[in-house]
Amino acid sequence: MEISLYIHYPFCLKKCLYCDFNSAADSRITPAEYVAALVREMELRARTLPASIVAPTLYFGGGTPSLLPPEEVARVIDAAARLYGLAADAEITVEANPGTVTWEKLAGYRFAGVNRLSLGVQSFHDPLLARLGRIHSAREAREACSAARNAGFANIGIDLIHSLPGETTGMWEDDLRAAVLLAPEHISAYGLSVEEGTPFQQMAAEGNLPLPDEDAAAAMLERTASLLIGAGYDHYEISNFARPGCRSRHNQVYWHRMNYLGFGAGAHSFLAAPGRGERWCNAADAGNYVRAIGGGTIPAEETTLLTDREAQAEFLFLGLRLLEGVEEARFAAEFGLPVTEAFPGVVADLCSKGLLERERGRLRLSSRRVPLANQVFMAFL
Fold first, then answer.
1. How many CA atoms, within 13 angstroms, populate the side-chain half-sphere of residue 230?
2. What is the pTM (predicted TM-score) of this model?
3. 50 pLDDT band (50/70/90 cuts)?
């Protein structure tokens, strides 16, 4: 039984203005205290699972997990290997803020067993970074990438965000070219989403967030694919591009509805059994999380057993994020009926509108309609 592992580290030096992730910048919990709780949760959860388990991926997300000292990252990796049979070729990723790493820290991560680094660059324009509330500069982003190479990382990803306040298409093209010059194995290029409860939402409501219009945002999305494909990257998911053999193995676990366990405050989990699958998340408050684990209790919240309909919809709107699409035969094998019966008229309608394509037993987004992907996903909900 394969189960991927996700570790949530919810602490930051400063919370970005657009961020709605479970993170905070004012905790008194030390890294050692938090990691002790993580390891204890891993031990408690392991007792509820079958004996024969292997973990093909391990991912440290946040928050800012690059605030963790290498020895604490090593403690988690050792616990994963001991309790979950961490695969010999496991992909082990740490998300890193360029303003929080040094060569020494990165070399320590590499020695601990981390073999993939995801750098949250977001932009190579300092004024845009300042508007986002980031703590690093463009120079520090370049230096972090160079330090990672010198520390022995052969698999580096860079995250970028487009459609930022005050950004032009030309500025976005500059960011893409700057990323390509660093030759990362993976580039994630997301459009800004103004999320509820963030400072950006408040600024937008007050008319103080000068976002690019829809035409400019669409042009940035179009230029993303053409420029990165032209630079040799495979466009394999709506917002993700990779060199051959360097797709994010961990993220593909989510898109294919495979098993994963999340550890830490606010972490989410999914197991494909019982039934059509079960989802749950941990308590979001880090203090409550640490206290509950200290008392021998896993603070799980919002447990959901999926219905047939929910699982079928997930199969499609997650799988269709991948540019290769979904196999209709796999849908039929999993749910006992073809997708056209599960969603009568929906597939034909989306195909007639040019939003979906059917070819050789696969359903996939039309390459020309990727910007309208949310319309496709909503049709299955």
1. 9
2. 0.96
3. confident
Tens digit of each residue's pLDDT (9 = 90 or more) over 336-380: 999 999 999 999 999 999 999 999 999 999 877 777 888 899 999
Sign of the Cα torsion 247, 232, 129, 146 reads positive
Tell me the two tokens of residue 153.
């990382």
Would you list the DSSP string of 349-361? HHHHTTSEEEETT
DSSP element (H, E) containing 146: helix 138-150
- Cβ within 8 Å of residue 93, ≥6 positions away: 57, 58, 59, 60, 114, 115, 116, 117, 118, 157, 248, 250
Q: What is the mean pLDDT of residues 237-253?
A: 97
pLDDT of residue 343: 94
In order of start, what are the domains of the chain with their CATH numbers?
A: 4-254 (3.20.20.70), 322-379 (no CATH)
Residue type, 14: K
Confirm if 113 and 74 have CB atoms less than 8 A apart.
yes
Residue 27 pLDDT level (bands cut at 50, 70, 90): confident
Structure tokens belonging to residue 83: 């309790």
Residue 237 host element (H or E): strand 234-237
At CB < 8 A and 24+ separation, what contacts does 108-112 make? 108/69, 108/70, 108/71, 108/73, 109/70, 109/73, 109/151, 110/151, 110/152, 110/153, 111/70, 111/74, 112/70, 112/71, 112/73, 112/74, 112/77
Q: What is the mean predicted confidence (pLDDT) over 51-79?
A: 96
Whole-number Å distance between alpha carbons of 89 and 200: 40
Specify whether the CB–CB gap between 241 and 255 falls below 8 A.
no
In whole angstroms, give the CA distance from residue 253 to residue 251. Answer: 5
Residue 298 has pLDDT above 90, yes or no: no
Least Cα distance to 168 among 203, 97, 219 occurs for 219
